[in-house]
Amino acid sequence: MDFTFSEEEEALRDEVQAFIKDNFTEEVLADLTTGKRGRGFGPKAAPIFRKIAERGWNAIVWPKAYGGQGGSRITQFLVEEEFYRAAQVVIGGGGTGTPAVLASGTEAQKQHYVPAAIRREIIFCQGYSEPHCGTDLAGVRCRATRTGEGDDIHYVVNGQKIYTTNAQVATHIFLLVRTDPESRRHAGLSILLVPMDTPGITVRPLLTVQNEPGGPAGTTYGEERTNEVFFDNVKVPASCLLGEEGDGWAVSQRGLNLDRVGAWRYLISVKRDEDIVNWLKSGDERAAPLKDDAAVRDKVAELWIEGQVCRLMTMRSMTIEQRGQAFNYEGAAEKVWAPEHGVRTTEAIGQMLGPHAQLLNGSPDNVQDGLYAHNLLSAFQSTVNHGSVQVMRDQIARKGLGLPKPRK
Amino acid sequence: MDVLPDEQETLIQETAREFFAAESTPALVRAAEKDPSRYSAALWKKIADLGWLGISLPEDCGGQGLPLTYAGLLLEEAGRAIAPVPLHGTLVAALVLARHGSAAQRALLRQVVQGELILSFAVQGLQGAWSPAAEGLTGRAEGEYVVLNGSRTFVDGFRESGHCLVLYQAEGDGVAAALVDTTSAGMRGTDYVTTAKDSQARVDFDNVRVPKSALVGEPARGAAIARDLCDYAAALMTSQLAGATRRDMEFAVEYAGQREAFGQPIGAFQAIQHLCADMLIAVDGAELLVHEALWRLDQGLPASIEVSQAKAFAGDKCIFVARSAQQIHGGIGFMMEFDLQLWYRRIVAWSLRCGSVREHRQQVAAALLEQPGKVRLGMPLVPA
Predict the structure, then answer these.
(1) Domain end marker among A183, A218, A244
(2) Last residue within a domain, chosen from A93, A112, A136
(3) Listed range (A120-129, A180-189, A215-224, B268-277) with the worst mean pLDDT
(4) What pLDDT shows up at residue B339?
(5) Same domain for A381 and A273?
């Protein structure tokens, strides 16, 4: 066992922190929060992300052959953590598309997608959920029919995806489709990597409870970020197939494990613990009596300790990855614990602050620009997205503990 | 950064698991509960023969010199088998003596490693508060002696121990520690009757004369020694508790896979599955926290807050797991002839020892709120 980062990693942390100090100015941070394109794509922020890519910091763990650094997952985590803390941005490593291409792609696909993804010229969105199925992805109905001859073998895609985050900025969709119309459940699914500018694709933004303008970074956001995506006779070359036809379930699972763990997943939850502690000792006149309240102190310590478990579960996932071992239930456990912790801590902070916790940014008398009110609108997203905590518990019970499936 | 046991740690873990599974059977545990000594001398001898009593003691004390994480893994496995041996008290006192004791006291550790000398430690006063402040027992210097008066409570294994590492308040000198011969005149142990049916006792001191050669460390080091004693004790108790709790969870999972109701194993129902998933997460969390605390202690890094984090979490969650295991077993879990209750009764007792959830959270809250500057999770906190 070893619970520290190496000297080299700590030196890199210093370097990254210095970079952040130099580059993430107030102007850039404002661009990240309010920029129409969101998540680091605004005009002021975009050049910074090019600099990050030039340093290879968003591709530390990816192989050198495809433009990465061939470095350790732990190092990647450390760098991601610094960027997430400074600006609530996810700089790399996460997301489903590129890790899945690395895991299941042909040599040509790896060469085509990975270096361009590192340069942020290719950005994937994830086409999984459909109106009638989200967590139960085996129910996917979006159809892809193989047709054509010779050089013109292609798929024709028809159907609909929903809750497609960042479809409005993505260059490609990582699309889970049913290629065998006779198949049921997990069989007969395939993954297609479809350029978003292909004729027949329509993106329609969805307004959610999280579209609350003025939220501090990492909470709610002003513009729509999730979408419906419609496919109307979309012609996709066969070269866009990732992995074998009919093997889409396995291909998608390889990507998902990497998606459910990582720096941002844990930080989005534990940052709330830090925020409330730092506010309690900030000298704010509303904080002073709470800081000495025995019930508040007990609760804050409880939440802090839960936050430590979030961190350690993340480190456990990193350890498994780093050792090249396979996940059993550990990613699912992290995906239950950290999001639910985020919800518990957000709601507990609400009760500590009392009525002020409902005041959004722009309201008189709010606390820290309405941070906690905006959190209350956004915290429960992560217990739902990327696999609900209920389905995660099914996986823990069945895979981790070997409990049986229900008889029909 | 690699937070899971490495190959050598896993080997010790597996070896200890096999040993305790074979040697510390529920029958042995039941027999020890009825034995006046409350422990199995035969099992103790076998543990000593394997060299495990010195697992994390320095080689110049007859130990194996392995990191403290190994002692933690050993305690987890002993806890897993709820082994009726005074392992916790002996290891805690021995670790403190190895670090702070005189040459003569360190020489005693060879007897400890051989299994010939059992040790205990005494921290708490009549209020039961878990604190290195050593309230409730005072020491007055008289020539070449210190005279102790007062009480210590929840002293585990006092009856069988030859020496007891005692924290007391030295007149004018603050906290101090002494290694007291348990046969000293004026020292009287009274057995508690605990849910675990183990061998905790209250120890009353009535003008107990302790030679100055029995004092541990320089007077100025008293607070540091008390801190180490409390940290080792709470951390290793958490290890023992987490080990027992993991086994208790496994009983529930095994039973849920076999017991049928409504035409299928109850473990196929999501209500049971999700409860079991939460039990696994709870045990994993306790283990991860205590591994980090022990690793930091071993590295000589500040670790009191990490210890408190681990014990507070385990104290809260392990009872949840044990209670849930009882729930999953239904009626059969209540039966004294069914083994599950052996674990439940110990998990309850151990979760309350070496500091309650409330006390350890107070330590964490003080470190969070009383120290200047902003906090960052993952960066160490300094105790207030």
Answers:
(1) A244
(2) A93
(3) A215-224
(4) 98
(5) yes
Residues of A in contact with B292 (CB under 8 A): 3, 312
Rounded to whole angstroms, the Cα distance separating B296 from B308 reads 13
Average of pLDDT values for B21-42?
95
**In this structure, what CATH number is given to the domain that contains residue A205?**
2.40.110.10
A283 and A391, same domain (yes or no) = yes
Q: Which residues touch A249 (CB under 8 Å, ≥6 apart)?
A: A137, A138, A186, A187, A189
Q: How confident is the model at residue B157 (pLDDT cuts 50, 70, 90)?
A: very high
Evaluate whether A401 touches A393 at the Cβ level (below 8 Å).
no
Q: Does A20 touch chain B (CB under 8 A)?
A: no
Mutate to test the interface with B, among A4, A82, A274, A304 (most CBs of B within 10 A): A304
B300 touches chain A (CB under 8 A): no
pLDDT at A257: 59
Domain CATH number, residue A296: 1.20.140.10
Chain A contact set for B251 (CB, 8 A): none
Q: Which domains does chain B have, with CATH numbers?
A: 7-118 (1.10.540.10), 121-219 (2.40.110.10), 223-369 (1.20.140.10)
Select, from the ranges A182-186, A331-335, B80-84, the one with the highest average predicted confidence (pLDDT).
Answer: B80-84
**Is A2 an interface residue toward B (CB < 8 Å)?**
yes
Query: What are phi and psi for residue B361, nearest 5 degrees?
Result: -65, -35
